[in-house]
Amino acid sequence: MTTTTLWEGSASQIHDGPGGYNGVEATPEWAAEIKRLARERGATILAHNYQLPAIQDVADHVGDSLALSRIAAEAPEDTIVFCGVHFMAETAKILSPSKTVLIPDERAGCSLADSINAEQLREWKADNPNALVVSYVNTTAEVKGLTDICCTSSNAVDVVNSIDPDREVLFLPDQFLGAHVKRVTGRTNMQIWAGECHVHAGINGDELTAKSKAHPDAELFVHPECGCATSALYLAGEGAVPADKVKILSTGGMLDAARVTKSKQVLVATEIGMLHQLRKAAPDVDFQAVNDRASCPYMKMITPAALLRCLLEGKDEVHVDLEMAKRAQKSVQRMIEIGNPGGGE
Ligand code: SF4
């Protein structure tokens, strides 16, 4: 089938360059064309909170990874266009194996998910044959397939507490979330993989303390469902900022808190894409990033050009081996059943 576009010449503008596909601007014509192509393909567009504002604005649904995966499973459309990073699109595919899942640029990875691969996990398990594996949701489908229980940061403590106290636990891949869980549970038989998200390196203790001192009346919102903010979660627990000013919130909770806050200024410890939704929810509040360089370059690879290419060409399709998907689904299902899993990153 030949696709005739109403927006002539748009496809020829797309080119592959540093940082992904570019050459197309997010104009109202672009947005109209995206909507039209999505309808033509019978697709629904999902965008993660860390996406560029233009991508968030053109999407049918915006949210965190777990919420979007649930929406993908329940959507009447057979095609899901997942604007986020690759492990998130894989999780959507794991939960909806019969649907076509597209990601606008399959090179959009995640440094935290990439900090452990299946081979490394197999070796770690072989060295600890009686241990149970708990994986944060930022992992590849293959690693999820080798995992006993996945967790989000909202239910990581509950997940670890649900395991027989005499059983060894292997926790991966986020060392900050692991350290937080170990401190809260007081568990000694828990090994932690030394993985991290490079974006959170920007949200370090000095920066957090300095920003909090410079704005003593501001509240601090921490979104722990993100590798880039787990260090903030850890530091808040260490007393780096006054406890009464800190709110640890899921994305939904953060938006609710933004609507009712009495503070004129709120510091936000998360990836900066989240500021777009917060400013829309509470335009009178001055939201400031703890570090405005905390931007995930992988998330920003989903450009207007990449989304246009995706809808024009039906690329890139996400595939997960069926057997692996079944095993991964089990570990994700157990995650959903324990405590309150929140929304994933
Ligand atoms: S912010 Fe960090 S954890 Fe989140 S997708 Fe980007 S690299 Fe991965």
UniProtKB/TrEMBL annotation:
It is an enzyme of class 2 (transferase). Its main location: cytoplasm. Keywords: 4Fe-4S, Cytoplasm, Iron, Iron-sulfur, Metal-binding, Pyridine nucleotide biosynthesis, Transferase. GO terms for biological process: 'de novo' NAD+ biosynthetic process from L-aspartate. Residues 1-21 are annotated as: Disordered. It catalyses: iminosuccinate + dihydroxyacetone phosphate = quinolinate + phosphate + 2 H2O + H(+). Its EC number is 2.5.1.72. It holds the Pfam family NadA. GO terms for molecular function: 4 iron, 4 sulfur cluster binding; metal ion binding; quinolinate synthetase A activity. One of its GO terms (cellular component) is cytosol. InterPro entries: NadA (IPR003473), NadA_sf (IPR036094), Quinolinate_synth_type2 (IPR023066). Binds 1 [4Fe-4S] cluster per subunit. It is found in: Cytoplasm. [4Fe-4S] cluster binds at C110, C197, C296. Its cofactor is [4Fe-4S] cluster. Catalyzes the condensation of iminoaspartate with dihydroxyacetone phosphate to form quinolinate. This is Quinolinate synthase. It comes from Rhodococcus erythropolis.
